[in-house]
Structure formats: C-alpha cells, structure tokens
Amino acid sequence: xxxxxxxxxxxxxxxxxxxxxxxxxxxxxxxxNRIVAAVPTIKELMKKGARVILxxxxxxxxxxxxxxxxxxxxxxxxxxxxxxxxxELLAKPVKFVPVTRGEELEKAVxxxxxxxxxxxxxxxxxxxxxxxxxxxxxxxxxxxxxYVMDAFGSAHRxxxxxxxxxxxxxxxxxxxxxxxxxxxEIANLNRCVHVSEKDRPYIAVLxxxxxxxxxxxxxALLDKCDKILIGGAMAFTFLKAQGKKTGLSPVEDDQLDFAxxxxxxxxxxxxxxxxxxxxxxxxxxxxxxxxxxxxxxxPDGFEGLDIGPETDKxxxxxxxxxxMLFWNGPMGVFEQSEFQKGTISICKAVKALDGKAFTVCGGxxxxxxxxxxxxxxxxSHVSTGGGASxxxxxxxxxxPGIDILx
Length: 406
Ligand code: ADP
Ligand code: MG
What we know:
Blueprint: E1 13-17, E2 24-25, E3 28-29, H1 33-47, E4 51-55, H2 67-76, H3 80-90, E5 94-97, H4 103-110, E6 117-120, H5 134-141, E7 146-149, H6 160-171, E8 176-178, H7 180-193, E9 202-206, H8 211-224, E10 227-230, H9 235-241, H10 256-266, E11 270-271, E12 275-280, E13 291-294, E14 302-307, H11 309-319, E15 324-328, H12 341-352, E16 358-361, H13 364-372, E17 381-382, H14 386-394, H15 400-403
Parallel strand pairs: 1-4, 1-7, 4-6, 5-6, 7-8, 9-10, 9-15, 10-11, 15-16, 16-17
Antiparallel strand pairs: 2-3, 12-13, 12-14
Helix pairs in contact: 1-3, 5-6, 8-10, 8-14, 9-10, 11-12
This protein binds adenosine-5'-diphosphate and magnesium ion.
The site of adenosine-5'-diphosphate (ADP) has 20 residues, from strand 14 and helix 13.
C-alpha cells in the first residue's frame, strides 16, 4: 500500500479524507483531538506542494426527515468552525468552502496554489455520501488527481468519500494512498489480528453494553486469544447463561444460546466476574445503595453496575501474564463515580505491565474512559476508530476503506 510519505504530489490536487467528526456544541469544538491527529498528514502534503482538498463527515444528517429538520441538522453539523481551528493548528490559512458540489467548489479548487489547503463542507450534506452514490463519487473524483485516506474511524464504511472516490481514481491510474494516522492504526491493529507466538499469552478484555453488538468480535477473539476477560453489562448475559441469579442486571435473553456456545467453545478460556457492585435501578442518584455482592446473589430489584474488588484482582492477575492485550468496552458505568473502579483497575493492571506487553484499546467509550482517568499514555496504542477497530478484528484485518487502497 502506498503511504503519503512516498507519494509524489507536487502540483497535484489531492482529495484527502480526514476524520473531523469532533464533538461540537453550539459551534464550539469541545475536543479537537481528531483535528490535531490529522495535522501530520496535512503538513506532509503541504510540504510536498500538493493542492490539498480536505473532506470529512460530521455528525448525522437524516435525509429522510422533513426538510426543516434536515436544514436544522445541517446547521448543527456545519464544518466551518473546524476550518478556523485547523488554520490555527497549521498556522496557515485554510479556505472553507460551504458547499459540497458546484461552481463555488470547483473555482476554489482551481484557485488553490501548490501547498495550499481548503476544507469542503460536511460530506453528509449529500444524500448520496452514505449510499456510495456513483454520480456523487464521480463529481468528487473529477476534482482530484490523487487520493489520501486518513480517516481510520470511517474506514469500515464504504461511502462515496471513503470508497467511491478512490475506486474511480485508482481505475484512472491515479495514485491512492493512506495517511500517517491510518498507517499507524493498520500496523498496530494487524498485530492483534495476525498473532505471532512472541505475543502470547494474548488476552482480550471485553465489556460495555451489548453482546449483540459485539457477537462477531467475541467469535473472532475466541479464535485468536488465549484468554478473554468479560466485564461490563455484557458479562451478565454470560453469567445468566451459566445459571447465575443476575437480578435486574442487563441481560440479553435472545443471546443466551450464543453465550452458552461461546462458553462451551472456550473450554475455560472465558473468565467472568465473581462479584459485582450493585445499585438500585429505581432509586434516584443520591439515595442509590451501592454494595458489593457475589455474581450469584444479585438481589431482586438490583442490577450489577461494575465489577467488584475480587474480580478486579482476578482480572489483574490474568493481565499481569499478558504479552499482548486488546481491550474494548468499560467494565462498568464509568460515567458515574461509584461505578468507575473496575474500569480504573484494568487501567492500573495495564500500567503495571510497564511497557513489557503490547497493549491496545479500541472503542469510543473505552478510549474516552482511559483518557478521563489519565492512563492513555500507558497503552501502546489507543485506536481512534471504535467501530473500525472492532470490524478490523472481526474481518481478519480487512476494511473496505483500506482494501480499496491496495
Ligand atoms: P465502546 O464504545 O468502548 O465500544 P460500549 O459502547 O459497548 O463501549 O459500552 C459503553 C457503555 O457501557 C458505557 O456507557 C457504560 O456506562 C456502559 N456499561 C458498562 N457496564 C455496564 C453495566 N454493568 N450496566 C449498564 N451499563 C454498563
Ligand atoms: Mg460506545
């Protein structure tokens, strides 16, 4: 795969798919990490004298909604503030083009000088973007002489800007490449997919909300890992499948058979919580009873909201033996202080490995949690793509937005 550092782009118009899908509130950027992360690739292209056309999606626009609602969603997800922040980060002007096609865009592209940058309006203003509409892909491909993919968080989607455009450019013999961010993600996640013996024991830690969301990744990890530690809400479906009394804990009854199959297939390699921190689901925050019980004794009317201290120890003991670790999904409701300990204890166990193992965290909420608790520097790699990192593991290293670059 061609990488951006090896690309010859002087004087070429380069269509660069970045991930500027940042949290915005009333036009104010609340976390500019994703913009910062795209800067090295953009600077490299500027240095090489490319004419840089940046494109990204932002938020969701439901084109099936009533026209006023669509207009409202467009206003809310206007990319204009991102151009301002990017221009500060680059210390160079970034021209913002408020449309996604037509004369204004064409003129802006035509007037770019070598090393200059423009940002096009949100790709999702176009109804065809998420449908990978060939007509739209053609319009965008006509603007460019080359393509760079640096939006790892969108690489699992075959949309116009991630798939249709590079497909056309490639068929015309034009260069397509990945940026620095995508290059790093591929290298790190591939190590978790194609496991070498020196990386064993390989331990996966899974948590978060839904078994049904993560079925495919559980299956793939069972094939690759030596042990899987399961916490979070997801653990209760497995515990119930074992016949444990789970009270009001979140169980997906339609996944019990799947959980039983996994447990049988794992032959003891899936490790479940032994205790849990419970709360009364119906009481308001200030009167919530917080108590630790065995996973077999969750009282009626209560639900498990974090893993308990015995489980912390059990999981930490397993993690201490790891040579490689992949973690997705928090161990509890980490958004509330009473239920953070389990997630923090996984962070501490990773920190205690002291760089002697290769450790990866993927998943939107998981990455946010380790950052919030101040452990992001203790991991070898924190993926910028939640869904994309899981799909990469599920699909044995393949993602549409990456495969098309080969
Ligand atoms: P990620 O985004 O890292 O893939 P998920 O989206 O699957 O993770 O899950 C994150 C959510 O799971 C968090 O909002 C957290 O509060 C919730 N969660 C974790 N454990 C529990 C639990 N025991 N009960 C209810 N919610 C839980
Ligand atoms: Mg999530």
